[in-house]
Amino acid sequence: MHPSKVIKDPKINDTYYDPDLDKLYQYVKLGDYPPEWVETSIGENDENYFV
After folding, report:
1. Shortest CA distance to 24 belongs to which of 10, 36, 42?
2. CA distance 36 to 25
3. pLDDT of 40 strictly over 80
4. What is the enclosing helix (H) or strand (E) of 38?
5. Amino acid 42: pLDDT
6. Longest dimension (CA), the chain
7. Is the dihedral of CA 44, 51, 17, 37 positive or negative?
8. 48 within 8 A of 27, measured Cβ to Cβ
9. Assign residue 13 a region: left if phi > 0, alpha if psi is -120 to 50, beta otherwise?
């Protein structure tokens, strides 16, 4: 489930792991844009993936 549906009052740099989808999210603020949840998990197809 997306973290915005689980965490009601997130703080900047909070992280959330979704075990069902095996994804890691972080709540970040980029520049002048409002804060949002960004997926930060590394997948097998990413060039920085190490086993």
Report:
1. 42
2. 10
3. yes
4. strand 36-39
5. 76
6. 36
7. negative
8. no
9. left
Say how far apart CA 23 and CA 14 lie, in whole Å.
14
4, two tokens: 């915005």
- Secondary structure class of 15 (helix, strand, coil): strand
d(CA 27, CA 14): 5
pLDDT in tens, 13-28: 999 999 998 899 999 9
- Residue partners of 12: CB distance under 8 A and separation at least 6: 27, 28, 29, 35
Q: Please, which pLDDT band fits residue 34 given cuts at 50, 70 and 90?
A: very high
Rg for the chain (alpha carbons), in Å? 12
